[in-house]
Amino acid sequence: MTNAVASIEGSRADPDTPTSPTIGLVSYPAVLRANPYQRLLYGELARHGIVLVDDAPFELGWLRRARASVRVLHFHWPQAYWRHERGPRFLRRPLSYAKVALFAFRLSAARALGYRIVWTVHQVYPHERSAGRLDYLGARALARSSDLLLVHDRATAASTATELGRHAEKRAIVPHGSYAGVYPPGRPRDVVRAELGLPPDAFAFLSFGDLRVYKGVSLALDALAATSAPAIRLVVTGRIGDEAQAEAVRAAAVRDARIIEHLGFIPDERVAELFGACDAVVVSRSDGGTSGSVVLALTLGLPVAAARRPAYEDLLGGEEAGWLFEPGDAGSLARTLERAASADRDTLEAKRAAARRRVDELDWEQIGIRTAALIREAVA
What we know:
By secondary structure, the protein is an alpha/beta fold. The protein folds into two domains: 2-176 and 363-379, Glycogen Phosphorylase B (Rossmann fold, 3-Layer(aba) Sandwich), CATH 3.40.50; 189-360, Glycogen Phosphorylase B (Rossmann fold, 3-Layer(aba) Sandwich), CATH 3.40.50.2000. It is built from 15 helices and twelve strands. It has helices spanning 2-9, 37-46, 60-65, 89-112, 133-145, 154-164, 189-196, 217-226, 243-255, 268-277, 292-299, 310-316, 330-341, 345-360, 364-379; strands at residues 23-28, 50-52, 72-75, 116-120, 148-151, 171-173, 203-208, 232-238, 259-263, 280-283, 304-307, 322-325. Strands 2-1-3-4-5-6 form a six-stranded parallel beta sheet, sandwiched between helices. A six-stranded parallel beta sheet has the order 9-8-7-10-11-12, with helices on both faces. It is globular.
């Protein structure tokens, strides 16, 4: 994090003076309702004259019509543009190969029409690598056509260099911004804990976010089963993205009363109070990719138990704002949960204070200045 933040502070002065021309930009996919990240980003870019244009299908006809008002095509999670995941299973792969070819053609057409292409590489390949070589072809096509690759941390920058070769030379590090001010405080801690069934003396870990395979919630379940600490609780919340993962959580909650499952979409007004009811967050994914969940936990002032991966070590300042466990190792995570739950009050308060300090570095105003400067440079 320190290097990334320094790159922002050391960037050129904000070029977006009142005389700077407005630049139209579209987001692919369109802004997601459930995750405020894109809303925060584009709200900040708008302050610097880079304005989001809605209703923008990535189709040749639209690209021809929109040239007068749009200059930048900004991709985030692009796999839907080359994966075909509907219909009979035996047709999905051949149709996906046709789709990735169409995607590459549209990218080439967009460049020929004068568009600039930006890809925020949250991860080089999709979390669930079900498409194999198709993901490689799709990522390569997008990287080859892009004028700018944005990454949020040094670890992702390194993986783009490894996987994308010379195309990764166009990358720049701009940290993932905080979620400060997004979620209202909610109800008092004791009220929410009583509703969740958390005893007053329990040390509660929160696992928050979409329930998908790559999130590694099964590792947290195995880790809890490996510890006999009676005061530990694990609260598992979030939307169900994989029904098998949801069933595993429900079955584990039946076996072990220390697990509290609260699955399903969490409305904004409930998010902060869920974090406030718990004592720490566990992020059990072990791939080391950019994690909005870690940023959210720090924003809401909770220390995090996370895998010992460079991106998370940077965010947490080593163990300044949390605890680290060996990636994919349930025994290591179990020992980490016990270590966190047995920490004294002063240690916990120091980690909470560190969480708040570290997220102060993820200021959207500075991130907006840096991102706008990079996009304007790509356009120029």
